[in-house]
Specification:
With 542 residues, the chain is of the alpha+beta class. Helix content is 23%, strand content 23%. The chain folds into 3 domains: 107 residues, Rieske [2Fe-2S] iron-sulphur domain (Rieske Iron-sulfur Protein); 210 residues, Naphthalene 1,2-dioxygenase Alpha Subunit, Chain A, domain 1; 63 residues.
Length: 542
């Protein structure tokens, strides 16, 4: 089976670690939800299995009511709302892919509106601080690394691993640096190729909350991982990633699987709801089965998994993993990881950068829709049930996610739930020179304090959404650019020699060589454009 690498294609599933044990049971719930279109079927032992109703002619297929829904909906209709104990800081958030953390420069990142700086010391150990020098509030992510210490480039103050200031050039030689001169630190952990940060300054890090993905630890499991910065809210992003219904339409012919003629009603079965998220199975109504397993875990982890048994009886596991980080109002960062214990031979023929640019194309196809959706939510400032028309045969996971937000949103800086909301209290801050934006090229091509690149720092620009965050693609762009210049120069020299040559044989040889060099330069230029140029949708008359 060819594994698709569309970032929002939830069609590869496996049994997660939690559900492979005692949690793989159908929970006891009471359903009669017009929003989700569930029909309860008694199973015995007080269990209820919920099947999606897909008759779109029925008025109940649309979310037009205030919801008699599940247990939560019933309580809401009585004026009561279930509220879970939740604090957004008492969570692990995915910061970066370990392989892409710069070795020679600090990296400026954010979680909601909290600005952080991440860097490696001289021993390769990761450290994370508040991105603020205690001297005059300059951003440390605009600094540099000297002997494994982080230096603020404003006045040269230096800080080591525990946040202690160890050098102030402006104090007398015999003076001691006060212990109070330090920066706020955050706990970070590296796990399965991802750097995670614990945001609380009062609650000790909880190792049990650190995500662990069983499939990624299986023998023979290989994945393709990419990272993307996106210009819309993390909740909009998560909605998009857990929405399989849009894929055949929005991503028609983007890869080997998405085709608009495959758009159809879907089946859903919710098997678990907790204060930490939800999980369940889904599939195509036409197939009559639900082989795909989706799990959402707080604060922002989504996975789509599948198990397949080959003709020899061997079981293979496939995972689409999405690690989302809220980076402020109207912004988010996403780590996408597609992998499995078996790879398609066709996929091995393509370089990794090809899949990376294809993933960027998928996000660009949705970007206009999601950005406008974000704008409407911010403008209208009403719960999503007042704006969305949710189909029971396509939007089950979206409804589940927004209802989960109803339960825990009180513990977030802001949120838009199904029935409740708490909009941002302050307008978004737009930075004209975002800190750490170009950290990946800081040492080899100094660019601190300005743009310093051929592209504008705009999150609608593929170069700044992905390439600067990916060491592999950055190296590819640099290499192809260098080859393009070299081949172009060689073609020019060969053409000049061909003009000067007196022998017809030499002229022919030199002209052919120049032509080959020009062809190579064009190929390199195409490769650079594939990695840095946005997808432009061409409307078709069908």
């Amino acid at each position: 089976m060819a594994l698709s690498l569309s970032p929002c294609l939830p069609h590869t599933t496996y049994l997660s670690k939690a559900l492979s044990t005692s949690k793989l049971t159908t929970i006891s719930v009471s359903f009669n939800n017009p929003l989700l279109g569930f029909k309860p079927v008694k199973l015995g032992n007080n269990q209820v299995r919920c099947h999606a109703v897909t008759d779109l002619k029925s008025a109940s297929s649309l979310d037009q009511s205030k919801g008699e829904g599940d247990d939560r909906g019933e309580e809401e209709s009585k004026g009561d709302r279930i509220v879970a104990d939740y604090n957004w800081t008492d969570e692990w958030y995915p910061l970066y892919l370990t392989k892409d953390v710069p070795d020679d420069a600090p990296l400026g990142l954010t979680v909601f509106d909290q600005q952080l700086v991440l860097y490696k010391d001289g021993n390769g150990v990761l450290h994370c601080y508040q991105d603020r020098c205690p001297h005059r509030l300059a951003k440390l992510s605009e600094g540099q690394l000297i002997d494994g210490r982080l230096e603020c480039l404003y006045h040269g103050w230096q800080f080591e691993g525990n946040g202690k200031c160890v050098k102030i050039p402006q104090i007398p030689a015999d003076a001691k640096i006060p212990r109070s001169v330090c920066v706020k630190t955050y706990d970070v952990k590296e796990s399965q190729g991802v750097v995670w940060v614990w945001m609380s300054q009062t609650t000790p890090p909880n190792p049990e909350k650190l995500p662990w993905f069983e499939n990624f630890a299986r023998p023979g499991f290989q994945d393709t991982s990419t990272i993307h910065e996106l210009p819309y809210d993390h909740s909009i992003l998560l909605e998009n990633l857990m929405d399989p219904a849009h894929i055949p339409i929005s991503h028609d012919r983007t890869d080997w699987t998405a085709k608009r003629e495959d758009a159809q009603a879907l089946l859903f079965e919710v098997t678990e709801r907790t204060d930490r998220g939800f999980a369940g199975w889904w599939g195509k109504e036409k197939d009559g089965s639900m082989p795909n397993f989706l799990r959402f875990d707080a604060p922002c982890v989504l996975q789509n998994n599948r198990e397949l048994v080959d003709k020899d009886g061997e079981k293979h596991y496939f995972t689409g993993l999405f690690l989302c980080r809220p980076t402020g109002q109207g912004k988010s960062m996403l780590i996408v990881r597609f992998g499995g214990t078996k790879r398609s031979p066709l996929a091995k023929l393509f370089p990794k950068w090809y899949f990376h640019q294809n993933a960027s194309k998928v996000f660009e196809q949705d970007m206009g829709f999601l950005s406008s959706q974000n704008e409407v939510l911010m403008k209208e400032k009403v719960p999503t049930k007042e704006l969305y028309i949710n189909l029971k045969s396509s939007d089950t996971w979206v409804a589940e996610y927004r209802k989960w937000m109803d339960k825990v949103g009180h513990g977030m800086p802001y949120y838009f739930g199904h029935s409740t909301l708490s909009p941002p209290k302050l307008p978004a801050v737009v930075e004209h020179a975002p800190a750490g934006l170009i950290a990946g090229v800081s040492a080899s091509s100094p660019a601190k304090g300005g743009i310093g690149t051929m592209h504008a720092p705009n999150l609608a620009n593929r170069y700044f959404r992905h390439v600067i965050h990916c060491k592999g693609c950055s190296s590819v762009v640099k290499a192809f650019t260098a080859w393009k210049k070299g081949l172009s120069a060689a073609a020019l020299v060969l053409t000049a020699l061909a003009i000067l040559a007196s022998s017809r044989q030499w002229k022919t040889f030199l002209v052919l060589s120049a032509t080959l060099c020009l062809g190579g330069a064009y190929a390199c230029s195409t490769a650079v454009a594939m990695n840095t140029t946005n997808f432009i949708r061409v409307h078709r008359r069908l």
